[in-house]
Structure formats: C-alpha cells, structure tokens
Amino acid sequence: MGCHWFRLLLAISGLLPLAAASEEDDAYLQALEAEAARIEAPEMSETEPAETGGERKDRAGFEAELKKHQGTYSFYRALLEKDKAEVYKAYREGADFARIRKMIISRRLHR
Fold first, then answer.
1. Smaller CB count within 10 Å for the chain: N or C?
2. What is the pTM of this model?
3. How far apart are the two ends of the chain, measured CA to CA in Å?
4. Does the CA dihedral 35-47-76-57 come out positive or negative?
C-alpha cells in the first residue's frame, strides 16, 4: 500500500511543475498577443496596385514602400539584381501587391 501512495506522490509532483510552466507560457503568449495588437500592419490591399493614386514610384520609392512589408522585403533584398529588375518591371506595369509578393517569393525560393 505504501508503494501506491509513493507513485501517486510522484505523479502529482511531476505535474505541478508542468502546471507552473503552463501558466508562464500563457503569460508570455498574452504579452505577445498584446504587443501584436498594438502594432498596426501597413495597409496595402492584396488585390490593389502596390502604389495607388496615380504615377508609380521610381525604384527607390518602390523599395521604400516594400520595406513596410518586412518579410517580403527581406526576400526581395536577397534576390539577384536581374530578379529585382523583373519584380520592379511588373510593379511599373501595374501588378497588384499579391502578384509582386508571389514573384519575390518564387524567385527567392527557386534560384
């Protein structure tokens, strides 16, 4: 009978640290969610042109606009110059942001 209580004690004591870790994880996740809620994502429609309101920007302006989308921009920076030129050409020809993003990802992953 003593062995049974010993096993039960081990089982309970093994679960208590997990419960504490779970509470810490929850607090961490809540802090992350609160931070994410404070950050506003740049507004750029997936289906509208990357630049609205008339004339498209020059390449420097395009790249400055693209910097607002950190993940896409980090892929863009890693592209070969010829690939960057193709992406910019598509932008100048009126490609929407979804198409530009797909071009960047495709060229980055398939070089």
1. N
2. 0.52
3. 67
4. negative
